[in-house]
Amino acid sequence: xxxxxxxxxxxxxxxxxxxxxxxxxxxxxxxxxxxxxxxxxxxxxxxxxxxxxxxxxxxxxxxxxxxxxxxxxxxxxxxxxxxxxxxxxxxxxxxxxxxxxxxxxxxxxxxxxxxxxxxxxxxxxxxxxxxxxxxxxxxxxxxxxxxxxxxxxxxxxxxxxxxxxxxxxxxxxxxxxxxxxxxxxxxxxxxxxxxxxxxxxxxxxxxxxxxxxxxxxxxxxxxxxxxxxxxxxxxxxxxxxxxxxxx
Length: 247
Known about the structure:
Elements: H1 4-37, H2 40-85, H3 95-126, H4 129-157, H5 170-176, H6 180-215, H7 220-245
């Protein structure tokens, strides 16, 4: 009987090499064209334009992004709470819709947190940092409060769930209170997030390497991306080793 492992490798190898060669060629051509087209005057004009945009946007970044994301998040939570008020625990209908709306609320709050962190960091360069620091704390308090309400509503729907968002070990406590099906779902979602983050790091590495070649942005951005990629790969491998050793 033929070795299926070698067969799979031989079948997949040509396509893999073609993808790698195509990506390398595309990146090389793109880098060459960008380097030829980007004269120092053009790069300086782009930097000046970005600075003007950030100077205009930064003072309003946190309140505007907070309102645009946290208000819908609050509305999704309120609608989920209204559905919960009329929900029959003995009936399966309705629970999935409530959880879906709470998940959307959590997604919006997480996006709001990302924008708040970005505009706080940008404020040290483009605007009055102390004011943005105060706005950041207000936005963060609203985000945490809304997430706490979503978690509390989830616990009311599922009394077996444990954990408070104010607990440092909240994620571990919450995971420990999940059943096998929920843990499997978390594992699948985590693996998808791992794959997406790995791909994003590789794309950012390529883009930042080209930008360094074109505009001299330095190796620090490239190093940061590779550190994140290293943390992803090493933590994933160590987790697999630990879980296998427990069997």
